[in-house]
Fold this sequence. Notes:
Elements (H helix, E strand, L loop, with lengths): L13 H13 L2 H8 L3 H15 L4 E4 L2 E4 L1 H24 L7 E7 L1 H4 L3 H11 L3 E7 L2 H9 L5 E5 L8 E12 L11 E6 L4 H12 L4 E7 L2 H9 L5 E4 L8 E3 L8 E8 L5 H13 L5
Parallel strand pairs: 3-4, 3-5, 7-8
Antiparallel strand pairs: 1-2, 5-11, 6-9, 6-10, 6-11
Helix pairs in contact: 1-2, 1-3, 1-4, 6-10
Amino acid sequence: MEKQNNWRRQTxxxxxxxxxxxxxxxxxxxxxxxxxxxxxxxxSLQMRKLEEQVGQPLLxxxxxxxxxxxxGELLLGYARxxxxxxxxxxxxxxxxxxxxxxxxxxxxxxxxxxxxxxxxARFAEIHPRVRLExxxxxxxxxxxxxxxxxxxxxxxxxxxxxxxxxxxxxxxMVWIGHxxxxxxxxxxxxxxxxxxxxxxxxxxxxxxxxxxxAWWPAFTSRSLTGLHAAVRAGLGLTxxxxxxxxxxxxxxxxxxxxxxxxxxxxxxxxxxxxAVRALQREILERLPAKP
Length: 291
């Protein structure tokens, strides 16, 4: 009799894969537990179970956190695809598949260039009957338009003047400059800035003032593209979020004060339509976690 193959087909648990993906994306399984509503012991049990199922380590310690091993990186790609297909299947079979309406969203430029663009494309794919209108502008203009009813949702950066809205994320800020730029301690730091009021401008100038470092506004612009062009030309430094360092530029740190994190707020009406609430949920699920 032919010897039977001992291999048996196994099936991954999607809840376990979601924990794995969320923990890697947030760079913290403690934060993953907070987001998914699971205890630290439950998260650890899920990760042990997953490694036993795969038969090799998926995570390794790096500094104070855990990062994927080579096998973990491979699983991560497949897990994301499985979860996306799962979520799309449920959306197609649920009431959300028939969701319609009109949503007007306001977005800061930094987010429009990074993670929010694919998020909006995904939302449009899942909810094809919802007419989505997105506008990129300064935080001050977006908050004003939300308060006047011209926007249904708005994401804005916090400023020293205060703001309303729900705090949904905190993102690290960095100094950005030309790779060959060097801090000359004998002359004021040339800054590339938005016109005031601007939360990034406020943080950059206040940080330099506290450190006793002189500065001057070498270039101002109303667009992020203009800021980046000026920095590429070597006209000075700018301060933006760490997730949005353009190609050809680099973070700068030598001799400069740390900028800390900047707060992001979501403005939403409590009486929002189902379509607006659906987009709001999608944004909250995909946002980087607060540190």
